[in-house]
Specification:
Peroxisomal Thiolase, Chain A, domain 1, two-stranded antiparallel ribbon, 33% helix, globular
Amino acid sequence: MRKVVVTGMGVISPIGNDVQTFWNSLIEGKNGIDQITHFDASEFKCKIAAEVKDFDPSLYMEKSDIRKTDLFVQYALAAASQAVSDSKILGEIEPENFGVYFGSGIGGFNTFAQEQINLTEKGPRRVSPLFIPKMISNIAAGNIAINFNAQGPCLSITTACATGTNCIGEAYRTIKHGYADAVITGGSEASITPLGVAGFVNCMALTDSEDKDAASIPFDKRRSGFVMGEGAGALILEEYEHAKKRGAKIYCEIAGYGSTCDAFHVTAPHPEAIGGARAIADAVKESGMENEENIYINAHGTSTTLNDKTETLAIKKALGDKAYTVDISSTKSMTGHMLGAAGAVEAIVSILTLKNGIIPPTINLKEPDEECDLNYTPLVSKQKEINLALSISLGFGGHNACIALKKEQ
């Protein structure tokens, strides 16, 4: 079994469009949630979201290619470009040993909605010939592979809100078992559209709060649903000896991965948190750090009534009494729920927490829920050295995923 490390990272998010800006915003407790500007939301029950600000795709793509891609692909290419540049891997790896595991929970929602309007209003001849290659959810992975000549395994995983974490975990296994030497991995989402917001509102998932500071409030008894976010996170995973030989900067080791399914309900988590607990326990066991005390958990923490109390139960079942001593936070309090991108972006949070010894806060957590009684780092960040970081993602369909990260020895 081969050792797998992280050698590059990139992020597009509601609180920063590069890793350093993103991290500074996190530890300062910056709220990326505000009124929706992507469309007129005046008639919508939900009027707020965590939108990406000041994004310029021309920094990463030719102008001729921008027209040919959906926004979720543009976010993906931007984050991947940052990660590739950060890793300095180009020219240091054989193309056939370079893979891409990059997903999206929904794919080209903007494109899908617009082309349906074109079909309805103008007829079938006016549907764009670019409709399919802009919309399909695997096309972010495809474009990344084309851009960086990654000729190894190229997969797009779609497991709703667990997408990013599953992509990282499966990329880890691919390198560990020798099918690639390095993989560009992560997730992307751009679903803050009229249809997307209406759909999530009508399935009772989004908050009805219009106060941006009382909207995404994980583990708070006032919580009423999640806030949609958008963006992308990308990581370069690399086999340790390959990275060491070329003198690569190493952020951390990917040390464990758990992936399970509740097999219970299409949207609700299992009330006994059986699958979530097993995913966490599996990741910890594989890491070989079952006895570690200095642990950080980046919780899925969506600010929905069911998720937060069930995830709390999952952590307790997986870690036992240790659950009460670990440091936890939900950075969705700042970024909103970035759906298919969430796991990738939150893995980056976990890596930076491990590296910098600063635990980001769960902002606006002012009235703790009695059923959510663990240490969620309310309101402000704190300094603490961490030896093991866990990033948890839980998705519609019962998907549970957790990755374990530790300092490279």
